[in-house]
Design goal:
64% of the residues lie in helices and 0% in strands. It is built from 4 helices and no strands. The protein starts with a helix and ends in a 6-residue tail after the last helix.
Length: 142
């Protein structure tokens, strides 16, 4: 076979409708596959962005909890909680009970208060064991 005859066969083959339709089908299939891949990549990128944001929020929450934990473990907080919630005091300390001021008891010049004859006890009827229970299980103090 001569080289020119071979070229003619190749050109005729390329010009045939079967080959043309086949190439169009392959091109369409490639475009569809490419479109699916692009859509999948966009979906994956959105998921990555959402997860990155979730990680950032979780890290901020962790930092806040770490700061709170440091505060709650401090001796200053423990001492304040013991004084506030369990009415404890240090050895040698004197506790001064200041009664609540009722605005209707104000007599005389501004700032003078009608003082009761005997100091009143704290208004809590809770027992010491109830106060401990509330402190341990984080109930709101009464």
């Amino acid at each position: 076979m001569a080289p020119s005859h071979r070229r003619e066969r190749i050109l005729n083959l390329l010009r045939s409708r079967v080959i043309t339709v086949g190439l169009i089908v392959v091109a369409i299939g490639t475009c569809v596959a490419l479109g699916r891949e692009v859509a999948r990549r966009v979906t994956v990128q959105r998921e990555i962005d959402r997860l990155t944001k979730d990680i950032s929020v979780a890290e901020q929450s962790t930092q806040n909890l770490d700061r709170l934990l440091v505060t709650l473990k401090s001796s200053t907080y423990e001492e304040g909680a013991a004084r506030t919630y369990m009415n404890l005091q240090k050895p040698g300390e004197t506790v001064l009970v200041v009664p609540d001021v009722d605005p209707s008891n104000l007599n005389g010049p501004v700032g003078s208060i009608d003082t009761p004859s005997a100091p009143s006890a704290p208004k809590s009827n809770d027992t010491n064991s109830k106060k401990w229970w509330d402190f341990i299980f984080h109930s709101s103090p009464t």
